[in-house]
Amino acid sequence: MTEITGRTRVFAILADPIAQVKAPQGLNRLMAERGVDGVMVPLHVAAADLPTVVAGLRATQSFGGAIVTVPHKTAIVPLLDAVSDAARLVGAVNAVRREPDGRLVGEILDGAGFVAGLRAAGHDPRGASAYLAGAGGAANAIAFALAEAGVGRLTVHNRTPARVEDLFARLRRLHPALPLASAADPAGHDLVVNATSLGLRPDDPLPLDPAGLAAGQLVAEIIMQPAKTPLLAAAAARGCRTHPGLPMLEGQLALMADFLRMRP
Amino acid sequence: MTEITGRTRVFAILADPIAQVKAPQGLNRLMAERGVDGVMVPLHVAAADLPTVVAGLRATQSFGGAIVTVPHKTAIVPLLDAVSDAARLVGAVNAVRREPDGRLVGEILDGAGFVAGLRAAGHDPRGASAYLAGAGGAANAIAFALAEAGVGRLTVHNRTPARVEDLFARLRRLHPALPLASAADPAGHDLVVNATSLGLRPDDPLPLDPAGLAAGQLVAEIIMQPAKTPLLAAAAARGCRTHPGLPMLEGQLALMADFLRMRP
């Protein structure tokens, strides 16, 4: 990293918990490679404090923007001045840019990053039958990106069926021909994705019943730390191929840097 | 600097303008030498936005504290939960520590740093006749530190005489025997100090009339950028020794790091 001076632009990642985030390492390395005078730092912000912290960042003229992750992706939307059409439909953002006049603009890059990470590992989701655990911010983004990438059908599982129906209603607006189902069992799907935060803490339950996993399936995570979640361990034990969470971040680092205008 | 991760503590300097600040370079170097997992970044904050930004920093659990400089040193005092006795008497702080429970505690280190910088350059102020331009936050801190260091008499100049009288009333509480005078002319003083922000911008007027400067005097600045202010240039042209602003920061880097608990 180049030396931080009074002219350095400051970027942040907003998260709770914070210790496991990887965006500072990735984006600081990318800025160094690009010759950008900027630095990304970790801001540990509890859910209840998000409006206060966002107000402070909006008022900080050297603040260039933030990556936003659990638990803030949906809660931050009404605090912003504008969001992209994709972010509005998904109902979440994971990147916020501060314009020179202080306006905060949000974008969702999770889904595109997840698909880019799958493709970089040799897994094209086109035509696949896909199963998604979760209906939160990241799950919404991945559902839209998988539909955009041309999956053949999509099953979504969430403890609260109303959240699945709400996601489906929005998906149908953009992808009316895509077959959608709400079901708990991942059996019979080519691609199984955990898009919940279950697995982040050691005592979390599994996000889905591993009895429905079998050889031939690809099981993918969005959790980056630990790299081998209990779900991926269970999937590997049942003969599945696995895809960890880190490629989703790697797949969107360049997308994030461009959106945040990390330019020399 | 060591790599920034999700575990790195974040420190800031709050200023307007911001480009000239030197604390990030000095304290990031010091943290690297001490093996501290922390980073200091520049936050450009206008005076009107200070309460909003301070509220945001208070709510950020990975925020360790801030260096505070022009124009925030006095304005930030009522925004804090506690200040040291010295800071309360001076009416300004230049360092704020965030305690783990979110309480913000302020301290003033400018004066001690200024005197440490003078001594490191071989100039002991003990017994000297001293002239101080300014009666703001930094000037107050330096006045108390010069009194503590044992100057023989102290003259203060400010466009608003009431601010000088107010400073004197507080100085007399701690140093009742020190001769004090309010006067514009720096002539006849061993040590002449600019403790205003005049000289920060190219079109600023001089903080004092250079006709009162002559060989034998030491003329000192608190402005760090530019290193050679118009006042120092005028002083050198009249045969004075000069002392730039940077040693005041260097003199207090270790004091700042200790106060901000920059420890491995």
TrEMBL record, chains A, B:
Domain named Quinate/shikimate 5-dehydrogenase/glutamyl-tRNA reductase: residues: 127-196
Domain Shikimate dehydrogenase substrate binding N-terminal: 13-96
Coiled coil: none
InterPro entries in the record: Aminoacid_DH-like_N_sf (IPR046346), NAD(P)-bd_dom_sf (IPR036291), Shikimate_DH-bd_N (IPR013708), Shikimate_DH_fam (IPR022893), Shikm_DH/Glu-tRNA_Rdtase (IPR006151)
Family annotation (Pfam families): Shikimate_DH, Shikimate_dh_N
Catalytic activity: shikimate + NADP(+) = 3-dehydroshikimate + NADPH + H(+)
GO cellular component: cytosol
SUPFAM superfamilies found in the cross-reference section: Aminoacid dehydrogenase-like, N-terminal domain, NAD(P)-binding Rossmann-fold domains
GO molecular function term, any single one: NADP binding
One GO biological process term: shikimate metabolic process
EC numbers: 1.1.1.25
Protein name per the record: shikimate dehydrogenase (NADP(+))
Keyword annotations from UniProtKB, A to Z: Amino-acid biosynthesis, Aromatic amino acid biosynthesis, NADP, Oxidoreductase
Pathways per UniProt: Metabolic intermediate biosynthesis; chorismate biosynthesis; chorismate from D-erythrose 4-phosphate and phosphoenolpyruvate: step 4/7
Domain of life: Bacteria
UniProt-listed Gene3D superfamilies: Leucine Dehydrogenase, chain A, domain 1, NAD(P)-binding Rossmann-like Domain
Source species: Methylobacterium aquaticum
Gene label: aroE
